[in-house]
Amino acid sequence: MRVLVVAPTPFFGDRGCHVRIYEEVRALAALGVQCRVVTYPTGRDLDEVDIVRASPVFGITASPLGFSPGRPLLDASLLLVAHQETVRFRPHLFHAHLHEGIAIGVALRARHGMPLVADLQGSLVAELVDQQVLSDGGAAASLVGRAEGWLVRRPTRILTSSSHGAALLAEQGVDRRMLTTLPDGVDIDVFRPRPPDPALVQQFGLAGKRVVVFLGVLTDYQGVDVLLDVAAILDRSDINAHMLVLGYPNEAHYRAAAARRGLDGIMTFPGRVPYAEAPSWLTLGEVAVSPKRSLTEANGKLLNYMACGLPVVATDTPVNRELLGADGVFAPVGDAERFTGAILALLADPSRARGIGQALRQRAASVFSWTAIARRLETVYQETI
Q1: CA atoms of 202 and 197, how far apart (whole Å)
Q2: Which residues does 340 contact at the CB level (< 8 Å), separation at least 6?
Q3: How many Å apart are CA 249 and CA 309, to the nearest integer?
Q4: In this structure, are residues 254 and 218 in contact, taking their beta carbons and an 8 Å threshold?
Q5: For 286, phi and psi rounded to 5 degrees?
Q6: d(C-alpha 293, C-alpha 285), whole Å
Q7: Which has the closest alpha carbon to 191: 116, 74, 280?
Q8: How many Å apart are CA 143 and CA 265, to the nearest integer?
Q9: Phi-psi domain of 89 (left: phi exceeds 0; alpha: psi -120 through 50; beta: other)
Q10: For the chain, where are the alpha helices, taking DSSP H only?
Q11: What pTM does this model have?
């Protein structure tokens, strides 16, 4: 089976959606499914993935995250290369990521007639509101919402990363028979418990520290602003805690914000971490955190935390509860006091923390391995064609 994967994003970029695309393609290859990814002109090539890039558009570069005004022109260039690769590659179906991918896939299906599987990680309107591109309830949000409602009714099948996402699509009028919940996954052989890397411990002065680790996109809707408040509370405690905040973009902004508040001694922002190196960084921590504000978007970082055997404190959202299950430790969205209290309780009881981490590791292995998820995805493909 051959699948043309449409990825309207600067793939690969060491973050959630990109990891999902990469791991799906890798796991499908092990099952004999041949995938070719068509994507934007910029991004990092990967030896294990067949990538074809759209032609650059003069003066237009996609931001590494979220909306940018030139994206429609990049999407037009991507549509052209996707059409060319359809003729060359002769796929059995299109697998489109993100809402822009659906729009491109609809055009491809109209021209070539292959089925269209869409892969959505959340609501387009909610994401743009979270990113402060749109005002919640405004006229522009209403217009984008109508466009989103039209788009999500076009694919042959839709994959959602959570059952909460599937329920939201059903509320938009999508036939439930079109919907399949396909969560993010994790490679439990790569992401696994291991001793802290002595070189990293020395490099960042973490010896003797009780490290709290975050890995993700550094934005307000990911709750990184809340982590500043959490660090301030931790700094007043008698536990020798240190917050290691890994990821990009905006690391310079948050580093400066921490310094202004006198938190540069308790917070470190190393910047972008290559996906292949993520396990070594995560296992520097005793507790992993995700204060994400978004109520609809996927949260694949939790699975990496889980597979590394870390206890996890996360915001109390439907997506996070679905991933972490009964062994997650939750705090209300935006509540720095209760979030910090949950972290301190784990640091104060290492035996309980280890038990939670072991249970989450087992859950990751039994429910969220990429091999099992790829088999479910292959079944969707077979039903679609």
Answers
A1: 9
A2: 229, 230, 233, 234
A3: 27
A4: yes
A5: -95, -30
A6: 22
A7: 280
A8: 46
A9: alpha
A10: 16-30, 71-89, 98-112, 124-130, 139-151, 163-171, 198-203, 224-235, 251-260, 278-282, 301-307, 318-324, 336-348, 350-367, 370-384
A11: 0.88
User: Cβ of 276: how many Cβ atoms within 10 Å?
Assistant: 10
Give the whole-angstrom CA distance, residue 83 versus residue 164: 33
Describe the strand order of the beta sheet including 210-215 as a list of residue ranges.
267-271, 241-246, 210-215, 287-290, 312-315, 329-331
End-to-end CA distance of the chain: 10
DSSP β-bridge partners for residue 137: none
Whole-number Å distance between alpha carbons of 266 and 264: 6
Q: What would the two tokens of residue 262 be? A: 């006198």
As a whole number of angstroms, the distance between CA 161 and CA 180 comes to 9
CA distance 351 to 41: 49
The strand pair at 329-331 and 179-181 is best described as unpaired
CA torsion sign, 14 to 15 to 20 to 21? negative
Query: Cβ(48)–Cβ(15) under 8 Å?
Result: no
Q: Which neighbouring-strand residues pair with 38?
A: 6, 52
Q: Which amino acid is residue 232, in one-letter code? A: A
Q: How far is CA 143 from CA 90, 124, 137, 173, 217, in A?
A: 36, 12, 10, 17, 27
**What is the residue-wise DSSP string for 159-206?**
EESSHHHHHHHHHTT--GGGEEE----B-TTTS------HHHHHHTT-
Q: Which of 247, 185, 237 is nearest to 213 (CA)?
A: 247
Q: In three state form, how does the secondary structure of 93-145 look?
A: EEEEEHHHHHHHHHHHHHHHCCCEEEEECCCHHHHHHHCCCCCCCCHHHHHHH
Q: How far apart are CA 208 and CA 48, in angstroms?
A: 39
pLDDT at 204: 95
Average pLDDT per 10 consecutive residues for the chain, totaling 385 residues = 97 92 96 98 94 93 73 95 98 97 97 97 75 77 85 96 90 92 94 97 96 96 96 95 96 97 97 96 98 89 98 96 97 97 98 98 95 95 96
